C-alpha cells in the first residue's frame, strides 16, 4: 500500500525514500566475511562481483573496461563518447580535465560550452568496431551502451563488432515512447531480433519497469537524475529517491516472474551510489547489481583523472549535468577490493559489502535482498 500524504488541498503524493533514509538492521546469525559470495550472473555471463562500470567517458575507456573485467566486474563502453568520436581521445580528455573550473561551483557556462563543442564531433562507426575489438581481444566480456536515440543508427555496427551485452541507457527509457517527428525505437521487436542480452534503463517506478521487462530485457536500470554529475532535479524538476525506486522495480520483477512463468529480470541500481554504504543498501532494497560512476571515477586509472561527467553534460540544447571534481582515491583494484586507507566508504567497496552481508548473516546477494531495513532519515551534522 502506497503511503500517500496531502501536499496541499489539490495534490497528494506518495512518500518516497532515498538510500540515505534507510538503514540495514542485523537480526540473525553472523558469518565470516570470507564465507560470503558476492558473485553475480546475467544470462550466460558470470562475474565475481555485482559491479558494472557506468558508460561515462570519465569512468570507462577500453583500458579501464578491460581492467574492470579482469577484476571480476563488467565495464560498459559509451559508444557516443570520445572514444568513438576521436582517433586520439587522450588529448581531448586532457583538455576537458584542464578546463578552468568555477572555484565556488561545479557549474561554469564556459566549460559547458566547450564540452558541447567537443562532443559535437561525429560518431565514427569504424571507431566503434575498433574499440570493441580492443576489449574483446583482452578476453573479457564486451559490453557497450547507446542512448535510445542512437540505437537504431548504430546497433548493427555494435552487433557486428561482437558485443556480448548491449545496454540502452538514457535519463529515462520507456517501452512506449511516442513521437510525431520520427519512428520511435520498438524495444520489444528490437530485443527479440537481437541475439545478445539487453539491459535497458533508466526506470524509476513499478509500471515503467514492468513494461520494460515485458520487452524481453535481461536487466532494467533503476535511477533518474540521481548521480553526482546530474542536474536533472534542478533543470527539469524530476527526481526519484532511489530506495523507493529500487523497491518498486523489485516488486515489478516479482510480479513479472509470476506473469511470465518464471523469467527473471535483473534489477540494476544506477546513480547516487558514490560510497560503499549506499551500494550495500541498494542491494538490500532488491537490486541484483549496481552501476557505478563516481566510485570508479575516483580510480587512478580513470580517464577523467579525478574529474567526472556524463553525456548529458554536453547536450547541445539542454545540458543537464556538470563536470565535477571527485578526486582520486587509489588504483581500481584498491577501490574494489582494498586494502582501504579511507574511512568514508570510497575504497574496498566489495570488502564492505562482504562485511555487511556477514554481519547480517547472509551468504549471497540474492539472500541479502531479504535483509531487514528501517526508515531512519539522515540528519546532516
Describe the fold and architecture:
The protein is globular. The protein has an eight-stranded parallel beta barrel, surrounded by five helices. The mean pLDDT is 89. The protein starts with a strand and ends in a 6-residue tail after the last strand. 34% of the residues lie in helices and 16% in strands. It is of the alpha/beta class. The chain contains 14 helices and 16 strands.
* Helical fraction: 25-40%
Count of runs of 4 or more consecutive helical residues = 14
Major β-sheet, in short? 8 strands, parallel, barrel
Order of helices and strands: EEEEEEHEHHHEHEHEHEHHEHEHEEHHHE
| Ends apart, CA distance between termini | 33 Å
Radius of gyration over C-alpha positions, nearest whole angstrom: 20 Å
Strand order of the largest sheet: 6-7-8-9-10-11-12-13
Question: How many β-strand runs?
Answer: 16
Write the layout of secondary structure elements.
Blueprint: E1 4-8, E2 11-14, E3 22-24, E4 40-42, E5 45-47, E6 51-53, H1 62-70, E7 74-78, H2 89-98, H3 109-118, H4 125-137, E8 143-146, H5 148-160, E9 165-169, H6 187-193, E10 198-203, H7 206-214, E11 219-222, H8 232-236, H9 242-260, E12 266-270, H10 276-284, E13 289-292, H11 294-297, E14 307-308, E15 324-325, H12 332-337, H13 349-360, H14 365-368, E16 373-375
Parallel strand pairs: 6-7, 6-13, 7-8, 8-9, 9-10, 10-11, 11-12, 12-13
Antiparallel strand pairs: 1-2, 3-16, 4-5, 14-15
Amino acid at each position: 500500500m502506497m503511503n500517500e500524504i496531502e501536499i496541499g488541498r489539490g495534490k497528494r503524493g506518495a512518500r518516497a525514500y532515498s538510500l540515505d533514509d534507510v538503514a540495514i538492521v542485523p537480526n540473525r546469525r553472523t558469518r565470516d566475511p570470507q564465507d560470503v559470495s558476492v558473485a553475480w550472473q546475467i544470462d550466460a555471463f558470470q562475474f565475481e562481483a555485482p559491479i558494472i562500470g557506468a558508460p561515462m567517458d570519465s569512468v570507462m575507456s577500453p583500458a579501464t573496461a578491460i581492467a574492470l573485467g579482469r577484476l571480476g566486474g563488467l565495464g560498459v563502453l559509451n559508444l557516443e563518447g570520445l572514444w568513438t568520436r576521436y582517433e586520439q581521445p587522450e588529448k581531448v580528455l586532457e583538455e576537458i580535465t584542464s578546463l578552468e573550473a568555477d572555484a565556488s561551483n561545479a557549474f561554469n557556462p564556459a566549460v559547458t560550452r566547450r564540452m558541447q563543442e567537443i562532443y559535437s564531433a561525429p560518431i565514427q562507426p569504424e571507431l566503434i568496431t575498433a574499440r570493441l575489438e580492443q576489449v574483446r581481444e583482452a578476453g573479457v566480456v564486451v559490453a557497450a551502451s547507446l542512448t535510445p536515440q542512437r540505437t537504431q543508427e548504430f546497433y548493427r555496427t555494435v552487433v557486428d563488432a561482437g558485443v556480448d551485452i548491449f545496454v540502452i541507457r538514457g535519463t529515462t527509457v520507456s517501452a512506449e515512447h511516442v513521437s510525431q517527428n520520427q519512428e520511435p525505437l520498438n524495444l520489444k521487436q528490437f530485443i527479440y531480433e537481437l541475439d545478445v542480452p539487453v539491459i535497458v534503463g533508466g526506470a524509476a517506478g513499478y509500471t515503467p519497469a514492468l513494461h520494460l521487462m515485458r520487452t524481453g530485457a535481461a536487466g532494467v536500470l533503476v535511477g533518474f537524475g540521481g548521480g553526482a554529475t546530474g542536474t536533472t532535479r534542478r533543470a527539469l524538476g524530476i527526481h526519484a529517491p532511489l530506495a523507493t525506486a529500487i523497491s518498486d522495480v523489485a516488486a515489478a520483477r516479482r510480479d513479472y516472474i509470476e506473469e511470465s512463468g518464471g523469467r527473471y529480470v535483473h534489477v540494476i541500481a544506477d546513480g547516487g551510489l558514490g560510497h560503499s554504504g549506499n551500494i550495500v543498501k541498494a542491494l538490500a532494497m532488491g537490486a541484483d547489481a549496481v552501476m557505478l560512476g563516481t566510485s570508479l571515477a575516483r580510480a587512478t586509472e580513470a580517464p577523467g583523472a579525478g574529474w567526472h561527467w556524463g553525456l548529458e553534460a554536453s547536450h547541445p540544447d539542454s545540458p543537464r549535468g556538470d563536470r565535477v571534481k571527485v578526486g582520486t582515491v587509489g588504483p581500481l583494484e584498491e577501490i574494489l577490493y582494498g586494502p582501504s586507507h579511507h574511512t568514508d566508504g570510497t575504497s574496498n567497496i566489495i570488502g564492505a559489502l562482504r562485511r555487511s552481508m556477514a554481519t547480517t548473516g547472509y551468504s549471497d546477494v540474492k539472500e541479502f535482498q531479504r535483509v531487514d531495513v528501517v526508515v531512519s532519515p539522515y540528519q546532516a551534522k
